[in-house]
């Protein structure tokens, strides 16, 4: 069988819900209809072993297209494993957090997701390097990262788990923070509740935090949230709302250094990384070939 007829499916077995079984069955039917061979690998949670095993599949079977069934964490892991190679990725959103899928305008319809993942339309997507970690769409320091940290330390998963951590986070947070920000063109000092480093437009929740975001434009935005304002936060859920400059402001750049005297929580693509006083971010231009809808 020619290598171009072989696909590798990387699936996170603990990601998402029971609907993943239906997704897999429909995928297998479509792959058979196209006379393709589907190889499958389930992640184990041991990143070192998983990376070696995925690369072994890639080399042994000359894989040029990988399907990822999981959430942002699984996609990020696969991207970190293969982004320097000539391999495309098709996403089958199946996680509790599907922020990248939202930014790629993937629908909830399973059949459409499969057609896009196996399709012919792709972009060469930028990635971010943040303190040595790969970032697909959005990272931030401040109160949102604190919320994610508290959520990861709580026993309850899902949106309810996030909601229940909101009040404790607001009570214990030491915001506002004082930041020093260096970009390509300027150095500035700002006070705020969080700073986002955004390659994309929105969080997985649908909150629009970066209207300027484009996944393949060669730059990213530093988004400074100046204050905690409930009205303006709800405005981010309406993609047509104008953001008040007293609430947030933007800087487009290819690199940034953000420092704080206090150690602050950092999250990348919905995963708590740790506390830090310094964030170094830079763009990795057009590093990941990813499948998108025809009208993206």
UniProtKB/TrEMBL annotation:
InterPro entries attached to this UniProt entry: ATP-NAD_kinase_N (IPR017438), Diacylglycerol_kinase_cat_dom (IPR001206), Lipid_Phosphate_FormReg (IPR050187), NAD/diacylglycerol_kinase_sf (IPR016064), YegS/DAGK_C (IPR045540)
Organism: Mariniflexile fucanivorans
Keyword field: ATP-binding, Kinase, Nucleotide-binding, Transferase
MF GO annotations: ATP binding; kinase activity
Stated name of the protein: YegS/Rv2252/BmrU family lipid kinase
DAGKc domain mapped to chain residues: 2-134
One Pfam short name: YegS_C
PROSITE patterns: DAGK
């Amino acid at each position: 069988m020619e290598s171009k007829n072989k696909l590798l499916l990387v699936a996170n077995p603990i990601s998402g819900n029971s609907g993943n079984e239906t997704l897999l069955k429909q995928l297998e039917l479509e792959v058979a209809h196209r006379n393709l061979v589907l190889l499958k690998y389930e992640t184990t949670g041991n990143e070192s072993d998983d990376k070696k095993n995925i690369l072994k599949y890639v080399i042994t079977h000359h894989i040029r297209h990988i399907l990822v069934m999981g959430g942002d964490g699984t996609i990020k892991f696969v991207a970190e494993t293969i982004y320097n190679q000539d391999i495309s990725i098709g996403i089958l959103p199946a996680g509790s957090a599907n922020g990248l899928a939202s930014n790629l305008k993937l629908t909830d319809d399973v059949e459409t997701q499969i057609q896009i993942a196996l399709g012919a339309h792709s972009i060469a997507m930028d990635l971010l390097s943040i303190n040595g970690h790969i970032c697909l769409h959005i990272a931030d320091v401040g109160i949102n990262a604190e919320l994610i940290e508290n959520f990861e330390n709580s026993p309850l998963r899902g949106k309810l788990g996030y909601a229940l951590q909101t009040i404790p986070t607001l009570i214990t947070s030491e915001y506002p923070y004082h930041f020093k920000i260096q970009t390509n063109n300027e150095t500035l000092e700002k006070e705020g509740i969080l700073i986002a480093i955004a390659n994309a437009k929105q969080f997985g929740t649908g909150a629009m935090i970066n209207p300027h975001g484009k996944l393949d434009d060669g730059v990213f935005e530093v988004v400074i949230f100046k204050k905690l304002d409930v009205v303006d936060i709800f405005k981010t859920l309406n993609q047509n709302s104008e953001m008040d400059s007293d609430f947030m402001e933007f800087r487009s750049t290819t690199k940034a250094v953000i420092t704080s005297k206090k150690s602050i929580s950092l999250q990348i693509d919905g995963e708590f990384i740790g506390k830090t006083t310094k964030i170094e971010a830079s763009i990795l231009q057009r590093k990941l070939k990813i499948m998108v809808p025809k009208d993206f």
